[in-house]
Amino acid sequence: MYQHVSKQRKFFNTHATKDLKFRIEQLKKLENILKANENLIYEGIYQDFKKSEFETFISELALIYHDIKDARKNLKTWARVQKVKTNMLNFPSKSFIIPEPLGVCLVIGAWNYPYGLSLAPAVAAISAGNTVILKPSEISSSSSAVMAKLIDENFDPSFFKVIEGGVPETTELLNQKFDKIFFTGSTQVGRIVYQAAAKNLTPVTLELGGKSPAFVTEYCNLKMTVKRLVWAKFLNAGQTCIAPDYIMVHSSIKNEFLEQVKSEIEKERFSFENENYTQIINERNLERLKQILDPQKVYLGGEINTSIKYMQPTVLQDITFDDAVMKEEIFGPILPVISYDSLDEAIREVNRLPKPLSCYVFTNNNKQKKKILKEVSFGNGAINEAVMQYTNSKLPFGGVGQSGMGNYHGEAGFKEFTHYKSILEKPTWLELPFKYYPHTKGKLKMIKQFLKF
Fold it and tell me: Of the ranges 323-337, 408-422, 431-445, which one carries the lowest mean pLDDT score?
């Protein structure tokens, strides 16, 4: 691993990546490679998930293409020197901030959206002028192999390199000195990455997860609420870090909510054959989902077929915060429904858990919207929608507390991989004498008058 990092550091030190034209060319090159090999990309992810071309495009490739287009269009603005005001203490002079790349970056991707969660941060790193070593998840092995083929056969490894492998390879990478580490994955592994980065005081972005709640109040548009929640929850068979993890529904509409959820799921007819559903990534994760499922509380679904790594869209009722399904992030097609009588009570229960990555509020009551947004801390979210906030590159995406640190997408991604170097420039034709010795009472009086203290 050392030789790869060393080569990239040597190349970065040539300052070639600081040229905006170079960055834009590399982004365009990546876009062209992806577009020319879409069939290979679709084949790879189908091997991992049985995921359809349609869902792969809308949930991964379209977002990558958008990030590339956004960066190419706005890069000159993002990277320009920023003039700022100078205080009177430094008169006469000017002040400015120079955005500069951090250097050699390690991007560790996640398996659930193997292309998007690997390439989107890589795009941000490239746009900021860094070199990138990309470590895709070994769990989605076919998609990982596709990325390695496309990138390693088309890019100079001293600039952009994919390294495949599992825990040993990741551990060895984390032992190297990077200028930035970007990790997407579980909170448990995030702690390991953070500890490894601390040895070299390497800045880290952690995109983690958590139990993202959805509040469904008595003032919601129930039909539209159910339609959007069912889509968001069972997209990618629930293997989405910002999926609604559980529902807090007002008791007055709980029964109707459950009935409409059942109707919507039945109408959608989720299946591999209908190309609107995916496998659970592996048997280990399928077994984990099976263990947290209480058959006595299944309202709908619950069927599991280990041979094809399938779990039926499942809804649980009469759930409490003491149930096994509420002790960890679900990351699968299980939707627990918890009823509440008082919004204050619901907020208190949600706030007893670690701060989630996302939160969704379904209500048309402005007072309720403001109350939840004010009293619940979370990374990102939506009102009367779910998951779609991720698609707006103007919204910085990231977590808070145990759900992560740092943001990316659009300009936020550029900033995450950039150091802002502050400069004060002063001419030599004038120098005020106040700061120099001797420090007299007269000078102190003049300084106070000058600064208006």
Answer: 431-445
Q: H or E stretch including 418?
A: strand 418-425
- Same domain flag for 80 and 170: yes
Q: Are residues 191 and 86 part of one domain?
A: yes
- Does residue 108 have a pLDDT over 90? yes
In this prediction, residue 450 has a pLDDT band, given cuts at 50, 70 and 90, of confident
Q: Which of 60, 105, 220, 241 is catalytic?
A: 241
HSE of 435, CA atoms in CB hemisphere, 13 A: 5
When divided into structural domains, the chain yields a total of 2
Give residue-wise pLDDT tens across range 141-187: 999 999 999 999 999 999 999 999 999 999 999 999 999 999 999 99
pTM: 0.94
Tokens representing 402 are 């145990």
Please check whether residues 163 and 219 belong to one and the same domain: no
| Active-site hit among 60, 105, 207, 416 | 207
Is 68 in contact with 34 (CB distance < 8 Å)?
Answer: no
What is the chain's Cα-based Rg? 25
What are 45-84's pLDDT values in tens digits? 999 999 999 999 999 999 999 999 999 999 999 999 999 9
Taking phi over 0 as left and psi of -120 to 50 as alpha, with beta for the rest, 110 belongs to beta
Helix (H, G, I), strand (E, B) or coil at 352: coil
Q: Catalytic residue at 43?
A: no
Distance between CA 378 and CA 373 in Å, rounded? Answer: 9
407 is in which domain, residue-wise?
A: 2-208+403-420
Tally of CB atoms within 10 A around 2: 11
Q: Left, alpha or beta for 367 (phi > 0: left; psi -120 to 50: alpha)?
A: alpha
Mean pLDDT of the residues in the chain: 95
Assess if residue 448 is contained within a domain.
no
Question: 36 Cβ partners below 8 Å, 6+ apart?
Answer: none
Please name which of 415, 429, 348, 441 lies closest in space to residue 121, comparing C-alpha atoms: 415
Residue 375: per-residue pLDDT = 98
Q: Assess whether 359 carries a catalytic annotation.
A: no
Could you tell me if 152 and 145 are in contact, meaning their C-beta atoms sit under 8 angstroms apart? Answer: no
